[in-house]
Amino acid sequence: MPQPEQLPRNHDMYPTARSRRARLWRLKLWLQFTGWLQYLITTSVAIVFLVVSAAGWLIGTWQPLLFWLPLAIGLLLLAAAIFDVITVKWGVRPTEPLPQRRDDLDTFDLIRARRSCHSFQSRDLTATDGAELMQAVNEYTRHDRLIGAGPIRLEYVAAPLTIWPGVGAHEFLVAIAPHDYDRLALVDVGRSLQKVVLQATRMGAGTCWIGPGADQSSVVKHLGNRFDPEKDHVVCVCAVGYRSRFTPLSVRAMERVMHRRLPLKSLFFSDPHCEVPLAVDVAPLSSFGRCYEVCQWSPSSYNAQTTRCAAVTELVGGEHKVVRFDFHTTTTSRFYAPVALGIWCANWETGCDTLGIPGNFAVLPADARGVGDVPELPHYDMSWIADPEK
Ligand SMILES: Cc1cc2nc3c(=O)[nH]c(=O)nc-3n(C[C@H](O)[C@H](O)[C@H](O)COP(=O)(O)O)c2cc1C
Question: Percent of the chain having pLDDT more than 90?
């Protein structure tokens, strides 16, 4: 029996469950960031069906169900994986047309038309679209347009950054906030970048917010001297380009699962603790029309849907009037929850502007909100205050 000090230093000689898990994790990351995992998922499911069909063949009974059906599904999935590798990974596919602009859509339909794009054409943004995008970037990151004081930037990077699970993305906006934690700057990142995303949607371009799926080192490498590790923090990136019809099957399945939303009654409330659902279709709240819906369809990391909103009304001359809406987050997430809340703010105020309802954002202290003991969750971040003067 070796004494503790005589145990081999090289732990790989006796792989523990933990080191095996670590190696599997590294393999997963490698497959993920070399862009093979998308195809391996489909292939693995195909193999499972083929194994079931082989077992069904050995059993020899119920052949249509135990042999032919899994065989057919397995072969179809295998064919889909091969097709995806050829058309998407190796790029052997016809040139796709430029998408149409979406100027025909009203603002609410435009916000609803946005959905994450996980497969991009290999062509670059046209010079006109690129210029329009950068004009929106400059406009929405202007200091006087931000809620907070912390500077934020959206840096354009033309490079195939390492991301997951999207494919073909080669143009990005990198959202940068101050190095020292500044929650309001993160809300501003969400609000400003979402407005740029809406402009890109108007141009007919596809976009995808990427936070946990972006390899930070690859982002920082491509930013070069535009990134100062002492002052800057990369919050997330947003891929921009033209949507491709060729999307790996596994990514298509993921998109379907992720593009679902909680009902309005789970998102909008009439009390500060976010417990009593808001009657959004009763006056005066009904005057905000589709503003609720466009918040509901805001994107969030992993579709976690961490934002909630509490309306505050008051009785003036026997009539209920909307005073403000308080935006909260439901988790202690320090980065992606405030970003998601900022995206809600962008969609909310874009909707209000469209309806001609005046108001502005402000952070109110607890006593100004009439809240006594402040619970940790839901975490209050921001109010949209109706402007009765206008
Ligand atoms: C802050 C943030 C980070 C995100 N990170 C990723 C990511 O790393 N990879 C990815 O494919 N999608 C990412 N998404 C996109 C969400 O998964 C997507 O918005 C959500 O599933 C809802 O789908 P939809 O955008 O099609 O409505 C992110 C979205 C946000 C807002």
Answer: 85
